[in-house]
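Q: How would the structure tokens look for this protein?
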Amino acid sequence: MSLRLAFWLAFAAATVVYLAMVLWALPIISGDAGGLMPFDLRPFGYTTDEARMFLSALGDTGRAQYLGPQHKLDTLYPGLLALSLILAYFLLFPPRWAIGFASIAALGAIFDWNENSAVADLLRLGVDRIDEEVVSIAALFTMLKSVTVTVALSIFLAGVMFAVWQRWRRQTG
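A: Here is the predicted structure in token form.
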């Protein structure tokens, strides 16, 4: 299988999983929590009070959705996204750059998986049993995921823009 085909397959799979989360799983959770944003969608983290507010508002349906389908989808997504980005980096950049950039994408996946585990702990503990330490760990992984994924996606977009610019220059030059 070619690198390009592998990229498109991984990208398509990541997109399908992402759309399932954003269009189906997360809206159910947010709706069940009275419109409050799920932990995963708070890039700047959250305080213990905010976590308690969310957990208090979240009903049984939202909790089941978060621990069930959303957790399963969000177990697949970080790896698929990282794989897509890593393959793209090797298509867009010289190998030594691609390897360095790949480590950022891999870190994003690792932080996301750790966030998922920490959020599951928050959901299982519930509003009465969470404490500042448990919340701060979960919030830290959410912020680390947000930063690394943003950097990884920015590198990808910069690579695509540079490739388009080079192609345009060749065609007009």
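Residues 10 and 113 are 18 Å apart (CA to CA).

The first helix runs from residue 3 to 32.

Upvote if useful.
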